[in-house]
Write a structure and sequence with these properties.
This protein is of the alpha+beta class. Helix content is 34%, strand content 21%. The termini are far apart. Bound molecules: zinc ion (ZN).
Length: 92
Amino acid sequence: MIGPAGFMAAPKLVSEPEPVYCKCCRCRHTHMRRDRIRQPSRRFGAGWSELACPSCGSRLHFEIDRAEHEAAEAKRARKAAKRVAQSKRGAE
Ligand SMILES: [Zn+2]
């Protein structure tokens, strides 16, 4: 018997539309809109869900463009690198 495996083995490469980036109003976390988490809606009640910040769960956010997102990521990376350097110095 031939199953659907052959069909499944060659998934079509779905070209994703340009990702939408969001910035949280509460914690300033930047992330892709598809990374936002679904949580039950308090406004519309049971059965409804809303997208929320994956970091703090806030629904308040605004959309930013890719350059802004990358700038925020770079800033965060620089901060993290600084922290590592500092903790290394502290350990010595
Ligand atoms: Zn947040």
